Amino acid sequence: MKYPSEFKIAVLDLYNGEANEGMRCIKELLDQLKIEIPFAVSYQVFDVRLKEEIANADFDAFISSGGPGSPITSAGSKWEQNYFGLMDSIFKHNSTHPDQKKFVLLICHSMQIFCRYYNYAKITKRKSTAFGIMPIHKTKEGRKETLFSNLTDPFYAVDSRDYQITEPNEAKIWSGGGNVLCLEKFRPLVPLERAVMAIRFNDEIIGTQFHPEADSDGMHRYFLREDKRKMIVDKYGEKKYFEMMQMLNEPDKIKHLYRQVLPGFMRQAINSKVNTINV
After folding, report:
1. For residue 189, what pLDDT band results from cuts at 50, 70 and 90?
2. Domains, the chain, with CATH or none
C-alpha cells in the first residue's frame, strides 16, 4: 500500500471573528485525525470573512464552517467573491481531474450561501430562530447516504439558525448527481414548507444545515457557564435549556453524530486520494 506524502485540509472559518464552539470542534476532530492516519495530515485555517483570507485549490479537502448573520446581504461582498472564486476552481478541477477529486463539507451558513449563489435552493429568514437539539429526518435518498448510514431516522443534531433553505432546485441537484438528504422536524400545526437540512451536491460536495461537528462534552461544559446558561434561559426558556443539556449527554444523539459525519467525510476524502496513487 502506497500513501501520499501529505493530505492537506483547508478550514474556511466563516464566523467573522465571533466567539464560537464550531471552530474548536472542527480543530479537535482534525487533531484526532492527524493521530489516527498513518501518513502526514495537516490543516490550515482561513479567516474568510473578517480578514478576507482564502485558500487556493491546492488543498485536498475543504471544511467550510457555520457563521453568524445574514447569508443573503453578503452577496457581492469581497469575501464572497474570494470564496466563490475558490468554489468555482474546485468545480473546475474536479471536472478536469476525475482521478484527483477534491472534497468539500459545507456547514450551516456555508451551505446557505452556497445554495443561494449556485441557485440550488431558496434562502429566507425564519419566522423564529431554530435553536436546540432537533430531530432530523432522512429522505429516501438520505437513507442511502454513506455518511448517514449508521444514524437513526430521525437522528438528532445541534440546530442553530435564523435562516433556512427551502424550495430546492431538484432538477439542478439531480443533474449534478446529487440529492436532498434530510429535512427538518415534522411540524403538523405549522403551514410552512419544511426546511432542507442536508444536500449531497455531487460525489465530492455535501452540505448540512445542522452542525455535525458539535462535540457534546465540550458543548455541555460551554453551556454550563453562567453567562451562556442565562443567555439561553432568557431567550428560549428554562425548559429548552434543560432539555438541551440532557440530550447532549445521551450517547445515541450528539455523541453518535459527532463520531459519524465529519470523520466519515474525511475518510472518504482520504481514501479517494490513497486509492488514486494505488491504481
Report:
1. low
2. 6-126+137-151+164-214+258-277 (3.40.50.880)
